Amino acid sequence: MAAIGRNEPCPCGSGKKYKRCCLLKSQKASWTSRIAMSLIALMLLIGAIVMLTSLGELGEGCPLGQVWSPEHGHCH
């Protein structure tokens, strides 16, 4: 099957040229998928940053059953 030329009639039967009909639909779909993938990547990046910055806070707490003593500077 040969590729459809931009100026040929659209194969969907609308009577319009391919460049004014289904070609635009396929380009819009690719743009929306690019935007969606970019948003997902951004959310994953933000999640990774939040996770990595919170890893340093894990060791600062006291073990279960103990409390922090500011007077002594350690857990009791």
Layout: helices, strands, pairs:
Layout: H1 22-55, E1 68-69, E2 74-75
Antiparallel strand pairs: 1-2
Can you give a write-up of this model?
The chain is mostly helical and 76 residues long. It is 45% helix and 5% strand. It has 1 helix and 2 strands; from the N terminus they run αββ. It has one helix at 22-55, and strands at residues 68-69, 74-75. The longest helix is centred in the middle third of the chain and has 34 residues, at 22-55. The protein is rod-shaped and about 85 Å long. The termini are far apart. The mean pLDDT is 82.
Structural class: mainly alpha
**Which segments are poorly predicted (pLDDT under 50) over 5 or more consecutive residues?**
none
Order of SSEs: HEE
Termini, distance in Å?
78 Å
Question: What brief labels describe this structure?
Answer:
76 residues; mainly alpha; rod-shaped; single chain; two-stranded antiparallel ribbon
